[in-house]
Please model this.
Amino acid sequence: MDLSLLNSFHLDVLKEIGNIGAGNAATALAKLLNKKVDMKVPQIRIMGFSEVNEVLGGAETPVVGILLSVLGDISGYILFVLEQSAANTLVNILMSKKPDEELEYNEITLSALKEVGNILTSSYLSALSTLTGLNIKPDVPALAIDMAGAILSVPAIEFGKTTDTVLYIETEFIEGEDRVIGDFFLVPDTESYIRLLDSLGAMC
Amino acid sequence: MTDNIIKVGMADVNCTKHPGVLVTLGLGSCVGIALYDIKIKTIGLAHIMLPWSHQAKNNANRAKFADTGILLLLEKMSEAGASLKNIVAKLAGGAQMFSFSGNSDMIRIGQRNVEATKEVLQQLRIPVISEDTGGNYGRTIEFYSEDGRLMIKTIGHGIKYI
Model:
């Protein structure tokens, strides 16, 4: 099946998947930060590769990316992208330092960030698993701090083997008024989003 | 002059004449293949994602692969008046953004992209005169038709010209 055959009903179901997964992750993040974390309505982005670099406020924006393979009944990737200052605050809170203290990237802080990624993606996927009745598990997280474009291209390349478009279920996290602090991307491969839709009775 | 700047996205090729500049933002494991016709100051840039077209299930988009992407770019450049014997190449990208402990072949995708690119260029007898490939960081590249300079910008690894 081609991505272009998805109708608006399918897209709504995929949005709801993003909603439930990210909602659970936002709660986990709020607990970690001890702050209110909101999320925006998820977006389903079906993009040609040439557009991939442009999401997340520009291809060159430095971000912290935590990438995990999704295992079990579905396969694909889950990518959690954190704005650098948010990553900073998160680590400082976890290390019981002042929230605005300058963050030094070393083995301990990087591993703390990975653990945050682990907790959030696990919450996302476990909500998804409960919703669909599918067995969905995260693999070990990997971390990169670099240009947003370079980080987002990683799951896109996997898509490149089979299609010319990539499907991202994107949910933005917001803190306070309207400050975007992070962005969740679920990137199921072609067979997996069909399986996701199917498990919810949305494929006929 | 910002008018002269042309962006080349992922799985895309483009070429331009003097005084044009070709730009690709946030190269990760993808490879930017910069070709320069030294005689007529015509430049071309391919942003490839995968090594070989025959290894993929869907190879309709030629710009996606090193082998077909280079050929596609050469066709465009020869339409613009460039000739193969005057063309030299510079390469950038092919990084490994994430280090996984698993054994997925995605781990080496950057390296395989660079290897395939070099193999194809060698078959075409296009010399690779400089490169900045590998590592674990992203690159933004700007390619100047003025003199074939390739600027490479990184986060935390400086700016350089090759």
User: Anything to note?
Assistant: Chain B touches chain A at residues 9-12, 25-30, 49-50, 55-58, 60-61, 64, 95, 97-102, 104, 106, 109, 136-140, 153, 155 (CB under 8 Å). Strands of chain B lie at 5-7, 12-17, 21-27, 31-37, 42-48, 87-93, 128-133, 139-144, 150-153, 159-161. The radius of gyration of chain B is 15 Å.
